[in-house]
Amino acid sequence: MSIKVGDHVPDASLGEYIETATDTCAVGPNTFQVSDLVKGKKIAVFAVPGAFTPTCSEQHLPGFLAKADEFKAAGVDEIWCVAVNDAFVMGAWGRSQNVNGKIRLLADGSADWTRKLGLEFDLSSKGLGVRCKRFSALLDDGVVTSLNIDDGGGLDKSDAATLLAQVKA
Fold first, then answer.
1. What pLDDT sits at residue 74?
2. How far apart are alpha carbons 135 and 121 in whole angstroms?
3. DSSP assignment, residue 132?
4. Which residues does the UniProt record annotate as the domain Thioredoxin (predicted)?
């Protein structure tokens, strides 16, 4: 059973490749708890089946990147992109897409969070293993207030324009 509007997102560890060291994060992969990251924040999150894949790299991530300032202006504190990849891959993908800190690229390397969300997508027959369904959601202090889940690998419900309209509504 997958998560739905009104549910609190489950906790799990997600990895993020940090490009610049801070007082609390070293350069390289860092692990964060979802429960800590969502506290007191409004977060636009979208998930992709995989970094560097065609639809994800040519449409999904670029769509959110292009509208990042509009999301912020509408009161969104952070934008997350989650994929069942490792933090090194997500960091490299962010550099290749010139994300420059506008979107947090979070790795769900073992699909733990994806499974807890009930949004796993088995692509083993294509040699890709378990991935996350393409979705977008608005989280308010960890509670799902909007949720858009695409069927298969398509991108017709979870795009940036759809979620942004829901944020502004």
1. 98
2. 11
3. E
4. 3-169
Residues 6+ apart with CB under 8 A from 47: 81, 82, 83, 114, 119, 132, 133, 134, 135, 136, 158
CATH code (residue 51): 3.40.30.10
Residue 7 inside a domain? The answer is no
Nearest residue to 12 (alpha-carbon basis) of 158, 132, 169, 154: 132
Mapping DSSP to helix (H, G, I), strand (E, B) and coil, where does residue 82 land? strand
In a domain, 6, yes or no: no
**How many other C-beta atoms are found inside a 10 Å radius of the C-beta of residue 161?**
12
Q: Is 132:49 a contact under the CB 8 Å cutoff?
A: yes
Q: What is the per-residue pLDDT across 113-149, written as a single tens digit (0 to 9) for each?
A: 999 999 998 888 887 888 889 999 999 999 999 999 9
Q: What is the pLDDT of residue 72?
A: 97
pLDDT tens per residue, range 16-53: 998 777 777 777 788 999 999 999 999 999 999 888 88
The residue behind tokens 């989650």 is: 82
Catalytic: which of 25, 56, 81, 132?
Answer: 56
3-state secondary structure of 38: helix
- Residue pointed to by tokens 């996350």: 132
Question: How many domains, the chain?
Answer: 1
Q: How far is 61 from 73, CA to CA, in rounded Å?
A: 19
For the question of residue 132 being annotated catalytic, the response is: no
